[in-house]
Amino acid sequence: MKKYALRIVLAVVLVGAGIIAGVNWPTTLEAESNAAVPGSADDPVVTKSYVDEQIAKAGGSNGGGTTQPETGGASAKLNVVSVPNGKILIANEGTEVVVRSGKAVVYSTDANGIADLTDGKDLTNGKSITANHHILFPRAGRGITTAPTYKGSLTVLVRGSYVIQ
Question: For the whole prediction, is pTM greater than 0.70?
Answer without folding.
Answer: no
